[in-house]
Amino acid sequence: MKPLKFSFFLLILVFIFSCANKNDVIVKAGSSKLTKKELQEDLKGLPPQARMFLASPEGMSRLKDELIKREILYEEARKKGLEKSEDFKRRMEEFKKITLINILLEEEIKSIQQVTEKDAKDYYEKHRDEFIKPTEVRLSQIVVKNEDEAKKVYERVNKGEDFSKIAKELSKDERTKASGGDMGFFKKGQLNSQIENVAFALKKGQVSMPLNLKGNIYIFKVTDVKGTPVEFDSIKKQLIDQLKIKRQQEWFNTYIEGLKKKYKVEVNEKALQEIMNQALSKSGIQNKEK
């Protein structure tokens, strides 16, 4: 039997124990008890699929079986004294740290201004060239021999350095090097299938991940796009979600920088490097920084 999803446990509140007192015992195994109150505190956000599942006799039976298994396993672990083990204490501290971080972020993130439909519409109007269903793309490329060279290219691109300038300096492709890597416009069907899949997935101004082709590594940039504009209504929800994520990321970065100034942070670089070297050696990987 596949393990029942954690969220399914909340269903028992709706279908079986809706009339019980908040501290009534739902499942008992030895001295271990699972109460309605515990479920109410721990299990929230039940998805509609779970409600539909438990509406069937099979769903109710599986739920009951999973609750029983949970309690008898918990009771057995307690009988063996595992809660006193160092491993348990270590894991609890890790869980405590992650849980506190999540609660903090959930509380702090409430202060972020919500993204409205107007915000999305304004962004759409100012960035119309991002919302085109491409029929043709104009590509530039940088061709290098190995991953180390590709890494150097990415570092310079990420710092905002001009792609064409880097191509003139580093690209191994003599046909496009002089023009800053410019390859011209391409329609679907005119490119290698791997390149086409990458190129037509990029927006104007975006740079691809490295592609290993015929012994060389290729990095592409879409410099222009021709095609059909995508209507706002068809991407409104998706755009609002994207802007929400972007706003949250910007807030998070600012929040972290503020905390770095608030608290004195120290890093034992030597100890960190030793641990990483040990981890890499166990994995059979040589640390190039060593």
List keywords for this structure.
290 residues; alpha+beta; Chitinase A, domain 3; two-stranded antiparallel sheet; extended; disordered N terminus
For the terminal residues, how far apart are their CA atoms? Answer: 48 Å
State the CATH topology of the domain at 132-229.
Chitinase A, domain 3
Got a strand count? 6
Principal-axis shape equals: extended
Rg for CA atoms: 28 Å
Give the CATH level 1 class of the domain at 132-229. Alpha Beta
Uncertain runs: 1-20
Named at the architecture level, the CATH assignment of the domain at 132-229 is: Roll
Instruction: Give the averaged pLDDT, no decimals.
Output: 85
Main pleated-sheet profile: 4 strands, antiparallel
Strand order of the largest sheet: 4-3-6-5
- SS element count, helices: 12
Helix content: 40-55%
Query: What is the beta-strand fraction?
Result: 15-25%
The chain-level structural class is alpha+beta
Instruction: Summarize the helix and strand pattern as letters.
Output: HEEHHHHHEHHHEHEEHH
EC number: 5.2.1.8
InterPro entries: PPIase_dom_sf (IPR046357), PPIase_PpiC (IPR000297), PrsA_foldase (IPR050245), Trigger_fact/SurA_dom_sf (IPR027304)
Catalytic activity: [protein]-peptidylproline (omega=180) = [protein]-peptidylproline (omega=0)
Enzyme class: isomerase
